[in-house]
Amino acid sequence: MIKINVKNKFNDFLEEYSKKLDLGGFSNLASDDLGKASRKDFQITGILGEIAVSMYRYGNIDQIKINLDEKLKHYYKTGLGDNGRDDIVIYNNKTRFLDVKASHTTSEEKINYLNLIVPQREYHKNMIYVAAFTLGKSRTEIDDVILAGFCFNEDIHKRWQYDNSKWCVPVSELRKMEELDIYIGKK
């Protein structure tokens, strides 16, 4: 697992993009989940996951700014979402898309017992899914993001026991982040 410190480092960016990305579109969140936090808070969780992957991959957030602006431009032009395409990976002349799945937890120890969750409508071919967990007292008081691991779409075979309409991969079965390095050009 990789820990990326985000405490108080990206507040202005989070404020700007959580507002821009709250477009009122389809949500995979159940109504009881929406009762736990605001849509903006859930946006912040997702953006922090993408920030952590960008920091891990590039050492900065320049690429996430480009990616988010492209997503917004695409949405305003077409009214369609990004189909889970948070970044692009090209390895051995094969293009895959990177989809960061972010959740919040208050304890790093719990992460080993959690899952990377992929809703049916977000399961796509040629995907690499990264499990990111924001770690802090609440969704808005985050110290770190833990990149718990990743999987390829072809690694996903289980349905989530709490919602059979979603796929899951237990964190204990994810590939180590360091293995992703060869695909994203870090090694």
Compile the SSE list and pairings.
Elements lengths: L1 E4 L5 H11 L9 H4 L4 H20 L3 H17 L8 E5 L2 E12 L9 E5 L7 E12 L2 E12 L5 E3 L2 E8 L6 H8 L3
Parallel strand pairs: 3-5
Antiparallel strand pairs: 1-6, 2-3, 4-8, 5-6, 7-8
Helix pairs in contact: 1-3
Give a description of the structure.
The model has no long low-confidence stretch (mean pLDDT 84). By secondary structure, the protein is α+β, with helices and mostly antiparallel strands. Helices cover 32% and strands 33% of the residues. The chain has five helices and eight strands; from the N terminus they run E-H-H-H-H-E-E-E-E-E-E-E-H. The chain has helices spanning 11-21, 31-34, 39-58, 62-78, 177-184; strands spanning 2-5, 87-91, 94-105, 115-119, 127-138, 141-152, 158-160, 163-170. Strands 1-6-5-3-2 form a five-stranded mixed β-sheet. The protein has a three-stranded antiparallel β-sheet with strand order 4-8-7, with no helix packed on it.
